[in-house]
Design brief:
Blueprint: E1 2-6, H1 15-24, E2 29-33, H2 51-63, E3 67-72, H3 82-102, E4 106-109, H4 133-159, E5 163-167, H5 177-187, E6 191-195, H6 197-201, H7 207-214, E7 218-223, E8 225-228, H8 230-236, E9 252-255, H9 263-275, E10 281-284, H10 293-307
Length: about 325
Amino acid sequence: MRLGIFTALFGQLTLDQVIPKLQKLNISTVELGTGNYPGDPHCKLEYLDNATALAEFRKKMDGAGLSISALSCHGNPLHPVKEIREKFVAISRRTILLAEKLGVKTVIDFSGCPGDSDNARFPNWVTCPWPPDFLEVLKWQWEEKALPFWSEHAKFARDHGVRVAIEMHPGFLVYSPENMMRLRAAAGDNIGCNFDPSHLFWQGIDPLAAVRQLGAAVFHVHAKDTMLWQDNINKTGVLDTKNYTDEINRAWIFRTVGYGHGVEWWNNLVSTLRMAGYDDTLSIEHEDSLMSIEEGLTKAASFLHGVLLKEKPAQAWWA
């Protein structure tokens, strides 16, 4: 297993400025954003139409000794507004084409969330089964929007030798292992997940149990932690819409790995991932509002270098 980072955390820097920072931390694997929510991509979709620029990018990556774990284009491909939806989908499709050219097998995206009808202006995330019209909306979202789109999009990715890793994220239709596996069952086995435990912690989902449930559907992993403030949860619950920077009043906040759960928990996650057949990248994603990027990344890299299982064990004598 290897350590990487999602370079969106350095969105204000050029790739040339990012590379020395990675080398200093002994990180040689990167997850690169190409557009949509990550913004300021370090991997340009324009490379598809410019062979010279693509060759220069390859040369830069090879010269720095960097490999790419995934291309990320987190968006809302089910957005109810046609113009917004089409932009998200276009970037997702072009990211798949670029991944094919670069020999990158995984593209990361969100499942998306439609509105409550074809006339909606905003996404509508259903969180409870009553009143009964909520379930009618949810059924329509899945059957009329999500399943047709993802069945077609999965085929497009498959035709180009790429798999799509859906990040389970509240606010979208796929936010838990249960609905992740529902989408995979319908769209095919080149749809899996980008496993980010930070989004599961605050929902009350056990990430270790989730890995066991997902198994081969785990395509990529984000290393990000969550701190739960039980005294605030007791008052407000976990569906917290306060700003992420209002840390003292929130029910939970994202943290650098090790600041929400200790080394024993992260040891268990790495071991459980390996038991489930995952032996690829742990990609650091920094969204800790209490630490600078430099501090958070440095601490996360140091912590995870000590946690990662570097090699598969030799065949045991009793096996």
